[in-house]
Amino acid sequence: MLLAIICWLMAALFIIMGFISSRSKKPAGIYSNIKAPDKDKIADLKAYNKAVGRLLIGYGMLQAVMGLFLAIINISERKAGTLLAGSFFFGAILLMIVYETVISEKYIKKSRSKP
User: Fold this and answer.
1) What pLDDT was estimated at residue 109?
2) What is the full per-residue pLDDT of the chain (115 aa) written as tens digits?
3) What is the 8-class DSSP label of residue 76?
4) Cβ proximity of 7 and 84 under 8 Å
5) In angstroms, rounded to a whole number, what is the distance separating the alpha carbons of residues 95 and 72?
6) Backbone φ, ψ for residue 73 (5° rounding)
7) pLDDT score of 46
8) What is the C-alpha separation between 79 and 70, in angstroms, rounded?
9) What is the rounded CA–CA span in Å between residue 86 and residue 70?
10) What does the alpha-carbon distance between residue 90 and residue 19 come to, in Å, rounded to a whole number?
């Protein structure tokens, strides 16, 4: 049950980050070690921030459901920890794929190199 509570706390953190990102006046970043794109490189800042916010909220909801699943089923702490780590790991990979293939392609202007 402790792992389910930890999962819900982490889910709440991502959901709060999603709401903050969607209402931000500056470009929302999604990676911790990479700076968010500049304002002038984003086609529609408000739509970009809303998309990033929805992505983070969706990731938080996925983890909240995982916490509910862990609370309902009766398995050992080791198996629950493995499931939890897997959901966060594969969820984070899915988060990056969606950001790079959908949000980045749609809202970030590509710089044209001169031939």
Assistant:
1) 82
2) 788 888 899 999 999 999 999 998 988 888 776 778 888 888 888 999 999 999 999 999 999 998 888 888 877 777 878 888 888 899 889 988 998 899 988 888 876 655 5
3) -
4) yes
5) 26
6) -80, 155
7) 92
8) 10
9) 13
10) 22
Q: Quick check: 29 and 36 in contact, CB under 8 A?
A: yes
The Cα 99–Cα 56 span in angstroms is 10
Task: Looking at 1-115, list the stretches that DSSP marks H as alpha helix, in order from N- to C-terminal side.
Answer: 2-22, 45-72, 77-98, 104-107
SS3 state of residue 42:
strand
DSSP state of 58: H
Here the tokens at position 29 are 């970043």
What is the Cα–Cα distance from 5 to 64, expressed in whole angstroms? 9
What is d(CA 11, CA 91) in angstroms, rounded to the nearest whole number?
12
115's tokens: 């031939």
Three-state secondary-structure class, residue 102: helix
Q: Which residues contact 75 (CB under 8 A, 6 or more apart)?
A: 83
